[in-house]
Amino acid sequence: MLKEKTNIVVLDDGFQHQYVKRDLNILLTDFSNPFYKDFVLPIGRLREHRKAAKRADIIIVTKCPKDLNPALEIEIKKRIRFYSSATISFTKITYEGLINHHNKKHL
Fold it and tell me: Is residue 68 exposed (0-12), middle (13-18) or buried (19+ Cβ within 10 Å)?
């Protein structure tokens, strides 16, 4: 029997599991409610204190507006830097329309 080696395991919502050995920690934070403005459960949505962001290798600010003001981006980076020295990236969602999966035509 041939055993295949697993090279990558992606954990969704695994940042707080500190006993899992990993090579890369990616922290996602929502543009409209960034971790540095949020609180630990039950008051907020965080599962651990904001200072845990120091373990992140990469922090991705998600769901940013299409026309994100460069000055606001700098301010967000400054606020994140208070908690982490991780690489910071910004993402946005772009909708391309609906596709009929039966005939692959755009609606």
Answer: middle
φ, ψ of residue 51 to 5 degrees: the values are: -65, -15
| Cβ–Cβ < 8 Å for 54, 26 | no
CB atoms within 10 A of CB 42: 6
Q: Phi and psi of 60, rounded to 5°?
A: -115, 120
Q: Supply the DSSP symbol for 18.
A: T
pLDDT tens column, 26-63: 999 999 999 999 999 999 998 889 999 999 999 999 99
Three-state DSSP at 52 gives: helix
